[in-house]
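Hi R.,

Here are the chain sequences for the assembly we discussed:
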Amino acid sequence: DGGITQSPKYLFRKEGQNVTLSCEQNLNHDAMYWYRQDPGQGLRLIYYSQIVNDFQKGDIAEGYSVSREKKESFPLTVTSAQKNPTAFYLCASSMGTGTYEQYFGPGTRLTVT
Amino acid sequence: AQKITQTQPGMFVQEKEAVTLDCTYDTSDQSYGLFWYKQPSSGEMIFLIYQGSYDEQNATEGRYSLNFQKARKSANLVISASQLGDSAMYFCAKDAGGKLIFGQGTELSVKP
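And here is the predicted structure of the full complex:
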């Protein structure tokens, strides 16, 4: 089955630790995205990548880092510099950027204490 | 900056009735796309329907249709014959320079 996987579904970390969230897709999509969602809010774009080895900052990139070494994978690292990292993180992919439907993974709920 | 506005934080609808979820957007783009997504309590985002700004007809997908009024910059989602499984958050989104901008969402509750 084609789709996007994110692991783990729930993640707990101590304050001051970096943590990496996994995102893998087997849809052969060129573009991938990371969003953050806070309770009762819409999605905000953290980073996106239109092609392998290239990525751009979204609206709230501070305290986050990404890599895109393979077409299928777009891991997100939440660094200790992110002031309020507890949130729901969603990964998505699409055939291209612009007027293309984005397909979403199931999300990772990160709690930092 | 471009903005998507969903003015209804919460909506109730009786099962089997139709409901309209509002969405307005702010843009100077001539060509763009508008999307609606559903987010059940499980958290994943499910694509529902797409409308291109130059599409002459309103988009329809099964029980979902878009009431697109370009001059008013609105793209309201109409769900016909509501089902209990339609209870969820609904988000309107617009493409903007290679990314999507999302509204704050509307929580729809379907009553039996």
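Chain A has a mean pLDDT of 94. The longest strand of chain A covers residues 43-51.

Let me know if anything looks off.

Best,
T.
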